[in-house]
Amino acid sequence: MEHEFTNKIKDILRKNFGEISDKIFTESQIIQYLNIKTKSASRGSKSRGSFANLYAIYILVEDYISKGYHKKKGYTDYEGAIFKDLFKRQRELPFGQKLQNHALNHRMNEEFKKYFPMCDYIPILRDLNTNRYWFNENLLKIKIDKRQYNLAETIILIIDTYIKTKKDTFEKFIQFCESAQKMKDNEVMDFINSLVEPTVDARIFEIVSYSILKYYYYNHKIYWGFEIDEIKEENLKLFKTGRTNANDGGIDFVMKPLGRFFQVTETVDVNKYFLDIDKIEKYPITFVVKSSDSIDTLRNKIRKQAEDQYSIKAIVEKYMECIEEIINVPSLIEKFREAANQGHLSNILTEIIEQSKVEFNYEYDYDIRDYEDMEIEE
């Protein structure tokens, strides 16, 4: 696999290893893994970074270098890095302030095995009793033409370069969003419309969808109460439940006081829809779909897949009834226009900027309490 950032990886290898750099690139599995994980570097801020798994590598290799093992023997006798030290360091890195410990404990190893099933080594080693960690030194050393080379410093440099590239492109995106605040209304409309195109990254689509729907429902009111003579008026409020693309039980937004659930998706895979419905015990969900297909077409695609998969009509109908509403891209744009006509254009743009900063941990204040009481996942 070659992409734009591949050239930067090869440049780093050439500077560090000269004429054998191409052999190292093709023969080192950890370098190949870094190449796979950095393919989003030049796709701009709308493309998802791979910080969790990269940082799991980074902090362990950094620990390896800090103890001098890239220049001396004896790593096999090293007592291992302490979890809290690693977790603290991970959250000090750009875009790392909200990362959890999953990559350290299993996800990075699982993904590496997926890409390199024939490899004899797993990258991250862990003692479950002491919660000490090591990076597999067999992957840091490579023999070319009977000479052994250590890749530790090169790995750190590659990841540092990737971080800088992603940070630069994201800062440009934020600056562009902020500059849009000075644009004319029609230019802002065009800019926000471009952020809900089907080709846009899923995280940006979710952020913009939330910002639009929050202010679309902003002026919608309901009247409710527990006693007939104590009915009260309340505006609908939409809340974002967590980070984009997070494993949070299938709920992206929640509406108060109606208790409506919203899930943002870019697929029409029936298994994904029904899994989300099952996670919340078949509670009705509104799906916001990153697709320009008509709502009828999307619903029919889901139903057709369900009928092909399930032989019992009652099961299919039960699931279909749980799809409270489908909001596609054209419907989302229509809601955006209505919210803008109600005077919320500036609020929507501000919300996009704020949510983007949260998503990418932009200007996040580091707090030691974020890791002091961290429970270690087994």
Quick structural overview:
This protein has helices spanning 4-17, 21-27, 29-37, 51-66, 83-92, 102-115, 137-140, 152-180, 185-194, 202-216, 270-279, 295-309, 313-321, 329-359, 369-372; strands at 81-82, 124-127, 132-135, 141-144, 147-150, 221-224, 232-235, 237-240, 253-256, 260-265, 285-289, 323-327. The protein is α+β, with helices and mostly antiparallel strands and 378 residues long. It folds into two domains: 4-169, no CATH class; 183-359.
Structure description:
The strands form 4 sheets. A 5-stranded mixed sheet has the order 8-9-10-11-12, sandwiched between helices. The protein has a 3-stranded antiparallel sheet with strand order 1-3-2. β6 and β7 form a beta hairpin. Residues 43-49 and 364-378 have low confidence and may be disordered. The longest helix is centred in the last third of the chain and has 31 residues, at 329-359. It is α+β, with helices and mostly antiparallel strands. The protein has 2 domains: 4-169, no CATH class; 183-359. The chain is built from 15 helices and 12 strands. α8 packs across α14 (329-359). It is elongated and about 80 Å long.
